Amino acid sequence: MITDEQFSFINQKIKKSSISSKEIQDDLIDHFCCLIEIEMQRGQAFEEAYRKAYIQTTPNGFEEIQFETFFLLNHKKIILMKQFTYISGYLFALTTTVGAFFKIMHFPGAALLLFIGLMGISFIFLPLLLFNKFKDKVFKVMSEKLKWIFGTLSLMLLLVGSCFKVLHLPGAMVLLGIGMIIFGILFLPFLFLRMFKSSQEEATSN
């Protein structure tokens, strides 16, 4: 049986971990205690039993448990969010394309279609896309995060600036200028830095 001191050790380890959900913490404590008791009944010392329980339950750290639990509990919401993101991107891109065609053909409604399409891409699709990327934790390094943030921001400004320019609205040149500055000074360095590091890693591995 696990002593009070050993139970306190397990409890502190899990309570001090990155897991914030009390329910998950309590479940993990019970799970760890069961596994450790089984190993100790087989003759293992507490320290070795705890190590085996940790490797078996959380081989990649406690934060993986919280992420997997969050994903399972919110799986449907996450899927719906991604579907809404891609559908909205398609609809706004289609609206922009139709608006551009109407503009070329001098059909009525071109300005409204362009405005809806470009604004939708800028302020709905791109932020949702970035949000989904961060939710999926696809960025392993800070430079990759900054690349996506600055790339998204510059694209938003360039799209809005282009929309203002086509529709002859004030502030178009300012938006385009800021967008180009962010793209050139902030986005491109991170883009080529990642490409350079990737090439170095490939050269090292070969």
Can you walk me through this structure?
With about 210 residues, the protein is an all-alpha fold. It folds into 3 domains: about 5-70; about 75-140; about 145-205. Helix content is about 85%, strand content about 0%. It is built from 8 helices and no strands. Helix 1 (about 5-15) crosses helix 2 (about 20-40). The model has no long low-confidence stretch (mean pLDDT about 85).
The backbone outline, from C-alpha atoms, is: elongated
* Mean pLDDT figure: 86
Strand content: under 5%
What is the number of strand segments? 0
Structural domain count: 3
Question: Which helices and strands occur, and which strands form pairs?
Answer:
Layout: H1 4-15, H2 22-41, H3 46-57, H4 62-73, H5 75-105, H6 110-135, H7 142-166, H8 172-205
From the structure above, extract its key features.
elongated; 206 residues
Summarize the structure.
The protein is built from eight helices and no strands. It has helices spanning 4-15, 22-41, 46-57, 62-73, 75-105, 110-135, 142-166, 172-205.
